[in-house]
Design brief:
heterodimer, A: Glutaredoxin, 8-stranded mixed β-sheet, two-stranded antiparallel sheet, 5 helices, B: Immunoglobulin-like, 6-stranded mixed β-sheet, 5-stranded antiparallel β-sheet, YtkA-like_dom (chain B)
């Protein structure tokens, strides 16, 4: 009797251990940093003017992970804070030799009347945006308003020329033009999380 | 033992089931706050500290977790702008306690960032000599 029991344990014990290993492995995989970011929506396609010349069509940049920011240069707080955080991520990505090659940053001004090419170039230089891998785009007020609307950015121009705008208007787009995550801008921007998410998408 | 055999795959399936990929929608249209600015006293008196208060509300509900800064300068003057963080309370009031040395009209831009919206309305207030 005892012998039969021992035999059963010998046979079933490893099987149970094997199943538990699979279960805990799956749990670890899905709850770890390896978990894929969910797909939110296809990113809209658009063509806007690049301040360094020519036009940029968003879907033509397919194949690169993109971090898309909506901003205006006269914004004194939340926008430059966000851009400065992005510049920090840019420097981290450069150290890994990913910036420009696998990852591209896109900043879209929603104040094209005041944000001329010159104003935007000064903004980019001031915030150390490396335009070899960072496209700064503008269009007509109608074009940029349409692009912002397609991304779900809330914009309301005020009589004094400032904007009421969404604080969640920083988008992570994968190599296949899918929006994978939206982040808070300004003080609440999760800079380390953005960096890690970018690397996740690069590895996909 | 047979029970244990049945339990193990069930446990595995349960753990895997708990971990299905999440989907997230894009942010919905945000709620735009209404900002009402007041001074106390009204008008402010020269060299006497008073309160500058912005009340931040969404649909009549106070916004308690906003970041609010007052950028203040003399109207029409090319003087430097002073930016001061405001202290919030649980009624949506964001206040700066401050005195002014000059009787004139000042402008204040109220830089307000909520979880959903950034807005920066500019308003005026006056500082007058105290009556003797």
């Amino acid at each position: 009797m005892k012998q039969a029991r021992r035999k059963r344990i010998r046979l079933l014990g490893p099987l149970i251990l094997f199943l538990l290993a699979i279960a805990s492995g799956s749990w670890w995989y899905w709850h770890s940093e390896n978990q894929k970011l969910p797909v939110m929506l296809p990113a809209p396609n658009f063509t806007l003017q690049n301040i360094d010349g020519g036009n940029t069509t968003f879907h033509d940049e397919q194949g690169k992970v993109r971090l898309v920011e909506f901003f205006f240069a006269n914004c004194p707080d939340i926008c430059p804070l966000t851009t400065a955080n992005m510049a920090h991520i840019q420097d981290q990505l450069k150290q890994k030799n990913e910036f420009g090659k696998d990852v591209e940053f896109v900043s879209i001004s929603f104040d094209p009347e005041r944000d001329t090419n010159e104003v935007l170039k000064q903004y980019a230089d001031r915030l150390h945006m490396d335009r070899s891998g960072w496209k700064v785009l503008r269009g007509t007020p109608e074009q940029t308003a349409q692009v912002a609307d397609q991304f779900g950015v809330y914009l309301e121009k005020q009589a004094d020329g400032t904007f009421v705008h969404s604080t969640r208007s920083l988008y992570l787009v994968d190599r296949n033009n899918q929006i994978r995550k939206v982040y808070q801008m300004g003080n609440e921007m999760p800079t380390d999380e953005v960096y890690n998410d970018i690397l996740k998408l690069v590895r996909e | 033992m047979k029970r244990m055999l049945l339990l193990a795959p069930a446990l595995a399936l349960a753990l895997m089931g708990c971990s299905s990929t999440k989907t997230e929608p894009l942010p919905a249209k945000p709620s735009v706050p209404v900002i009402v600015f007041k001074t106390n006293p009204e008008p402010m008196l020269v060299n006497q500290a008073g309160d500058l208060t912005a009340t931040v509300m969404v649909n009549s509900d106070p916004v308690k977790k906003a970041t609010v800064e007052f950028e203040i300068w003399e109207e029409g003057n090319n003087t430097p702008h002073e930016t001061i963080p405001a202290q919030g309370d649980d009624k949506g009031h964001y206040t700066v306690h401050k005195s002014f040395a000059k009787a004139t009209t000042y402008q204040v831009t109220i830089h307000t960032t909520t979880e959903e919206i950034h807005t920066m309305p500019t308003m005026n207030f006056t500082v007058v000599e105290a009556a003797h």
